[in-house]
Amino acid sequence: NDHSHDAAVKRLLEHATEFGFGAYLFVPFQKLGLGLERTINLWIDPKDIGTDLGYKIKQVNVAILTSYLLKENWKGELNLIVQTHTASDEADSTEKLRVFIDRLTILARLPKDTKVHFVDTDGTDWADHIPSADLNVLALKPKEIDMVEIRKQLDVFETSLLFTFDSGKENALA
After folding, report:
1. Is residue 165 a contact partner of residue 15, using CB atoms and an 8 Å limit?
2. In sequence order, what are the beta bridge partners of 120?
3. 10 Å Cβ neighbour count for 111?
4. Is the N end or the C end of the chain the one with fewer CB atoms within 10 Å?
5. What residues have CB less than 8 Å from 83, skipping those under 6 apart?
6. How distant, in Å, are the alpha carbons of 37, 47, 162 from that of 25?
7. What is the per-residue burial (b if ≥16 Cβ within 10 Å, else e) of 66-75?
8. From residue 38, how far is each of 67, 77, 79, 86 by CA, in Å?
9. CA–CA distance from 30 to each of 4, 27, 137 (Å)?
10. Rounded to two decimals, what is the model's pTM?
11. 27: β partners
């Protein structure tokens, strides 16, 4: 909760992106740190990456690759949390979204035991519908760095958070 370094952290992450580097921002949960269950929640928002999936995606490459490595190294569990937006989604988009996620998990070669959860983040009680985890991994765009919002997310999730930033050179589908 020390806000004294917020501006420096934001500037460092922005510079990393300017110079073509991927980056991480680890925000530990003060009560438990990383916990003991070895469970990782990887958050994907199809609106950020687009559902026109070719052989390269944007924004989430570092998040996918890092989550996979953590799962393997921890011998843990990986949950893929897919954000849905019912307020703005079409009625037939649920099936399209499932097809997209199936294709993404195959192309990214996510482990077969990865559990997929669709969560409507437009609602008020969405946090009650996600599986608990030791670490939530979220892709973030450099222009979206808001340390106040990040601290709010820490309070909602009540777990450590790992924000990832792509350099544009990574490819989780390669």
Report:
1. no
2. 84
3. 11
4. N
5. 43, 44, 45, 46, 47, 119, 120, 121
6. 21, 22, 6
7. bbbebbeebe
8. 11, 6, 11, 31
9. 17, 9, 17
10. 0.88
11. 161
DSSP string, 76-140: -EEEEEEEE-TTTS-TTHHHHHHHHHHHHHHHTT--TT-EEEEEETTSSSGGGGS---SEEEEE-
Q: Token digits for 56?
A: 């390269």
Cα–Cα distance measured from residue 174 to residue 110, given in angstroms and rounded to the nearest whole number: 12
How far apart CA 158 and CA 32 sit, in angstroms, is: 9
Quick: pLDDT tens for 138-172. Answer: 998 877 788 888 888 888 888 899 999 998 888 89
Q: What is the mean pLDDT of the chain?
A: 84
